[in-house]
Every structure is written in structure tokens, then in C-alpha cells.
């Protein structure tokens, strides 16, 4: 980007005045240093761009696409509080900064996604045991200009707005210039995205809204392989949804564009030097939008610089005048006043730390009170303990909010000092890490005996006599397992979770305290420099003519600064589609194809359809064998679009627009022998009424969830009272259906996904011991992956001979013809082999 010549020329003009002779150089030494430092910052002109959005919306893949190679690991759990920056550099290298030792430089073969994962992946660096603060990555192939730095932080992409993320948004956002808000073409995260966009907008940050993963868009296929909606039409609908999301989040009707990209195709295109694949990714459309946003924020940054220069000029002039006149010592009084303000925030900071510590002590007391309450409670019913556990969770949540407010108050005071000292907060980083855990009631099953009425008229008379003589005539005894509270396990869990929360709270106190102290030290250093500068000027000989000339020259420069006034554009939400003026050659165009090609396409879709229906029939037959009775298929989802697609594949049932609309409204859809349940429906009252009708039945349950956002999916499943109600009151075979799995396929890491899903299944089985284990499936267009998963699920003792036989059979299937299919099948089968 071109440097702002006017700003740089102003700095040079000021320095020329202050450096005209030796006397001035000596007198204005600190001022000259100040302007030199400012010039260096302006020449570097660093623009910080944060990538925000839902977890695993393809952030790492996008950054890798900008780098032109796979350096950041994908499909991982990011280690909390580690900031990653990416920029252009002459040398390809990464620098890892630690809290307690010197930085480590990685380059050559030592710089790749696996090495970075050792520091950035929570599974390899649990609780940040290596004490990594930041990782800076540079590459000559970085697509953006050398002054643009991409900032990535786990706190900016949590699934829910947890305390950690709220703190990050409050503390890190002020140091950011632009936000790339990355989402996917899926709609199930719009509510979370809207909340984040509101926060970013309140901080007056430029936003570029990006919908990623357009490569995953599939045509909407109807019966017999007929295309009901093509990809272009579906993408237009998603773009319109994105625009509406922005308008509702910020209450603004301005015209702006939503940029749709495929980070994966951009990365693959750059690695393989495939220009067509690269162009299809739209990545250049994004880089163009970023460059335009940089141009839009520069007037605001320059206006801030001009104000800063003007304040420094006024400081120089007033200081000289006070010293010459020997009265009205406003500058030294101002220094003392700011010094007093710093002393005040130091005291407030100390008090705030004590407040946080006292809040943590309250948590300790809550733990003891809760344990005592559980011990004293007589009931064995799990539900009766829910109130106790909910109380402790609510208290913990309240304390977290209080800690957040304490930190926010201190941060606001700190920002005021930055302004008073004429310092740029954009160069300040601080990132605390905190996320508390909730507590659940633990239960167990105990064998009990109950009396059941015997059939027959004769037994009715016996039961009358048994009631009189207190006998068991007319009844038979039946043993059953009753769910009761496991007090010891619940108490142990209360202690364990509370200990973890306490440790995290102490961690935030330490991390935030360290960062805050850094700012305080900077403030005191700046104040001491100002005091020293004032005293040194005061002791110097007064060269009236020289000083008078300096004052006149600086006044003239100051007038020009005020007259110029860099234009501060309003903060816009992304950029106008018209302004971007995307090349016509890249626009999607309609073209005709031959009947032969179209019929071949229909035939392929029909083959996929028939194979999927065979899987559906197999699952139905398998459920009959497990429960020994007729079952209904019930599909439980938080994402209608994905669920409807899966139902059409597995059952051959296609929902029309009106049926989709009713499902969104009322939450339950019945058709033939299937039920679809959408828990996020609008009409909650009607939904709950219909739900009550679905008890004391047998169901083949398909729980659909987002595989990329596995943590959020786990919360949805485990904390759903409605799902809990259905499972508790019915005979259930539970099948887990993974949606949004593509990131793991792209990363050749499907085994990690299956392992995470296995852990999720174990948690579900532990919570609902009465549940019957079903299959793990993938909502993929190609049924071959589900064939492999079913084969793996069937063989509990999966051995090498099974692996070879099944692999040969699957590889012989025409559906596994491509390289990606074969690699993914091998990953799936090897997971079961190693299991």
C-alpha cells in the first residue's frame, strides 16, 4: 500500500524545525525521538486484521490459502490464549514466543502444520503447558501486502459466547483495525454470528463478511436425480441470507456485499498451480475487498495520527512558554495529574485483583455448601437434585459475569490513560483465558423389585384378598433397574469441576495481571520521560530567538494539520458489491449441455440414490433385529437443511417448501414411517405438546450434529431436555449422523473425527444406559463412506483379515473410484482396525 505522503512529510517538516541546529537537537531530543518512532510506525503502516467466526469455519484453511501452503494445522482444538499472526516476509519462518524462555525460530523442513500443532493444538499442548504466548508466521508467498497482519486467536472463534470469548472481544478488539468475519454457507450459526457482529460493530470496526466452503454446496436433487435447485441458485440464497444477517445485526439497510469463497480450492489451486481451481475459489475477490477496507480505515488512522501530532506540538509549545515565563506550569501539573491517574488505576487494579480473589473464595464456599446440601438430602431421585446443581451452576455463572465486569472496568480506565499519554492502543495486546465448566447430577442404577398384576379373572379376586391380608396373591415379582442419584460420584464431580474452574479463574487473574502490569510499566516509563524532559529543558540556557522561531514554525505546521483534517469515513459493514466491481469473466454464466450428458448425470444420481436406499433398508432391518418390534425412524436436528438432505438420501422422502416452512415453525414433521424433529422451532408451545405424544414407543433415532463444531454439538445433545425426554421414555436405538465433516476429509484426518464421535457416544451411553447402540454415519452425497462405517460397526473385533477383505470389496465398488474416496475409506477402516 502507498504510504501517506502528507503524514510522513509533516513528520519530516517537524523534525527539520527541531533539528535545525545543535541547540535545538539537544533541547528537543525526546521530542525528536518521539517523532522518529511515529515515522517508523507510519512507514511500516501495520494494519491488523482479525479473523473471527464460528469454530472451524475454515479459518486455518483460509490462512493457509493466503500463505500458499499448509502451515497452520486444520481440524484441531486450538490451545487457549495463544495468538497467531501471519504476514508477508522475505524469509519463510515462524517465531514461537514463550512466557519463560527465549523465542524459538522455525524454518525449512521444521516449519509445517505438524510442528505448529505441537504448540497450537490443545491435544498436544494441553492447558498450554509449553507456556506459548504468540506464534508469528511469515512467508514471501503471502497473498496480502507486507503491511497487513492477520491476527488469529481462539478467543475470537468459540462456538458460544463463553466468558473467555467475551473477555477477548472486549480486550483484543480495540487493537484491531479490520475484522474478517468468517462463516460458512450453512445457516445454523446465524444467531451466534449476529451476536458477535453486534459487538464488533459497537467497537466501530470495519467488517468483511465472508461465507466459506462454497465447494461443499451440492445441487438440490429431487426424485429420479432431477435437479430442483442448481449450485448458483443455492449460493444466491445463502448470499441473501448473509446480507439479511448483517442488516438485522447492526440495524442498517446500507447496500453491501457478502463475499463467498472456497478457501480449500484456493489452497489446492496454489499448491498444484491449478489456475482454474484457484480462480473458482474467489480468493482474489476477498483480497481485493481487504485492500479496499484498508483504504477505508486509513483516513480514520491518519486522523488519529494528526490529532496525536497536534497534541505533541501543543505540548512542546506550552512547555517552552511555561519555562520562559516561569508561571502557569500547566504542563508539569498535567504530568502530575496523569501520574496521579496512573496511581489511581494501579490502586484500582490492586483492588480489582482482590475482588476477583474474593469471588474465587466465594466459589470455594459454594462448593462446601453444595456438598453439605447433597449429603443432607434424603431423596434418591435424580430430578430432585437438579435444583441444587442448577443453583451452583447459576452462582458460578454470576461470578464469571462479575469477574468480566471487573476486568472491563479496569480496561476502560487503561484506555483513558493511553489517550492522555498520546499512546496508540493498537500496539497493546492482552488476552486472558477463562472458561468455566458446569456441574451435572451423577446417577447409577440399582436393582429393585416391583409387583405386577397377573392376568386372568381368578387373580382379580386374589388381589382383593391380598389387599386385606397384606399378601402378594394375584401379583408376580419383577426385577428392574431404577435410576437413582450417585451421591459420591456427584460430590466428586462437584469437587473436580469446581477445582478446574478455580484453576482457570486463577489463570485469568495471573495472565490478565501480567498484561495489565505491562501497560502500567509503559505508562510510568512515559511519565518519567516527560518529567525528565521537562526538568532538562528547564535547566538549559534559554535561547529566546531559537525557541521563538521553533514556536512560530510549529504553530504554522499545527494550523496546516487542523486545516487538512484527514477525512474520517464512517465505519462501514463490509464493502459495496458495486465498488468491488468483480470481473465479468468470473461471474457465473448459464450454458447448455447435451441430452446425453444430462441423462448420464441423472443416471449417476439415481445410482447414488438406490445405494443410499439400500443402506436405509439395512438400517431398518437391523433395528428390527435389535428391538424385536416395529420401529419408527426419528431424525433429530438443529439444522433443517442438512437433515432434509439426509432424509431424502436414506429414506427417499423429499420435503417441499411448504413442509420445510411448517417444520421451522412447529418443530415436528410426520411422513409415512418417519418423524423429523427440529428443536429450534418458533412455536415452542405446540412443539412441546406434540413431543408428549411420542412416548412409550420404539424409535430408531438419528441424531444429526455438526462434526466440525463437535464441542458445541456435544453441548446441544447432552443439554437438550427435549432429547432427554424422548430417550428416557422410549426404547431407543441411537445412530449418530455426522454433518459438516469435510474439513477432516480434506486434512486426511477422518480418524480424529471418528475418535471424537466415539467419545461423544460414550458420554451419551453413560448418561442414558438404557439406550441401544446404533451406527455412526456421515451425511455425505456418496454412500460409500457409510458402507465402510456400517462394516466397521458390525465387526466389534475388527482384525487385519477383515480389513483386507472389506477394503477390497469397497475399492471394487464404482462409488470409490476417486483418489479422495479411496484415501477416506482407508482412514475409516484403519480407525476400526486400531480401535
From TrEMBL:
Keywords: Coiled coil, GTP-binding, Hydrolase, Membrane, Nucleotide-binding. The keyword Kinase does not apply. Residues 382-409 form a coiled coil. InterPro entries: Dynamin_N, Mitofusin_fam, P-loop_NTPase. It comes from the Bacteria. Its main location: membrane. It is found in: Membrane. The keyword Membrane applies. It holds the Pfam family Dynamin_N. Residues 49-206 form the Dynamin N-terminal domain. This is Dynamin family protein. It comes from Clostridium weizhouense.
